[in-house]
User: Fold this.
Amino acid sequence: MKIRSKFFAMVLASLLMAGCQDEIQDSENSGKTDISVLDGYVKVAINMPSTVGTRAAGTYDNGIADEYQVNEAIIVFFAGDKVGTEAEAYFTKAYNLNLNMNVNTAVGQITSTSDAYIMEAPVVTDDKQLYALAIINPNSVVKLEADGESLTVGGAEIDASSRLGDFRVKLSGDNISAAAFTDAVGLTGKSFTMTNAPLSDKGGQSLLGANATTLVPVTVYETREEAAIAPSAQIYVERVVAKVSATVNASIKVSDVAAQDGGVVVKVDGDSQYAGDHVELTGWTLNVANRSTRLVRDVSGFDTWIGYDAVFFPERFVEGSPIKLDGGKKYRINWAVDGNYDSSSESYDAYTDFITYTATDAPSWTVAWSATDADPKANVAYCLENTFAVGDMDRDKTTSLLVKAVYRRAADAEVKDFFVVGSTGASLSAEDFKKYLQANIAELSGADIDILSTAAGGYYNKAGGKMLNQLISATKDGAAVEDLDQYFDNIGVIKYYKDGTTYYYASPIRHFGDVETGWDDGEPYEEAKHLGRYGVVRNTWYQLTVNKISRPGEPEIPDTPNIPDDQQEAYINVQVNILSWAVRQNNVDL
Assistant:
């Protein structure tokens, strides 16, 4: 039975309620040298989430230790009118915060907490509200200037005129990548950049009048002593990147066929015409991964999305259970707008905006298909958020799984070259391929045919592929047969699997499942019904499992098609179930 697919955005909670029992630390502002201008104080704490979820439909997952490492934090303050909105609040100051994390027994969704900190903060007048934005592990993306008055985000300056929207601009370029948000100099593991999670003040089936906010209102106290005994505000933060892992279902693995290239050997589906064949899965990668992101998640469509929840599926875009049961009721939002979201206003280019692989631009492959105790992230990849409106729910814009493999036919005692010609689907040995050409091309009847040693695996056809004279040579009656390419009309496209090498192009990664975004074969996509069906959202763990292989894939990395995500030509079909980091478990049929 399928588990309902939901987005459980994993959060790190900071600025939690702290009583007199808290150990309180002083945190000096490393960016501001003139402390006399710092008129007020706030108390802060950073807290980590647990594995325990509040809903029977899903669970939370701790992930691995590297994903929870906190090395540095910046608290950014905004000020705005009390009767205004967070979008109108302007940047005031930002301070470094040094954290000391303590591992605690899991309580609710919290597994570890920092000490409580008293830190300086700018004072605002009575008609103003001060807001806080936490940036954990800013890495190379965010830099606090020495004067403590401004930041740079992706190289762009944040100053007194900046608003929250300046933290949601599309960041792209050589220095903005998944690595930029997960790496820190000198660390052996990962240091994940995290920022405030946008939250709804209502959840589940009661979304009428709900509001989504990202900045957190904070109270500034005149003295350190007042701050020490006061409760703190709550900020929930999330990782900027998504996580993907790939595994192979144990039921299709075979132990009596030795792997030749260090991969995992699996059997072909018994109901397939290729039953008895074996495939060694040697590597995988993420294709069509986003090259850009926003530092802080954008939920600018929230007011519209909650209307879709009311009509089609409650708790699709907003969770039904609050993050913290004993505190203020705040609910996770399950979708996002990224920098490439609307192609009508921000142009798409599959080979500029995304990391898209081709036969001439092959990836570095992840070779592990499972994690180990020694390397829990052996089969893990991290990528940037990639979402879109339904009008752009196409494969050349959707992050997907690309698999490399070696295919061995049951008719062969070992891995050998083979061919598939035209629409027959039958796999042919080299000798059978020659006989096929002799039988279907009159001019080659009785000819001696040789497969060229220089021929590369891939497609051979008239339009866009390699030429037939690059694959074979033929002599008949003592003379070379010329102009072989003209005979493509007789046979169609030839797929040459040299050394059995094949590639499986997965269906795109699913974010919401069929329960939330049901789709019937041939049905046109509707924004209200299908928004979020495909895509990759930050702080979500997508688990891909290869469940079935039914035939050979492609002889070279295929071009990414510009077709709707649900068309069924792909060899890997991804089905999403939920565990949660947030976790989305995908079952993959090849």
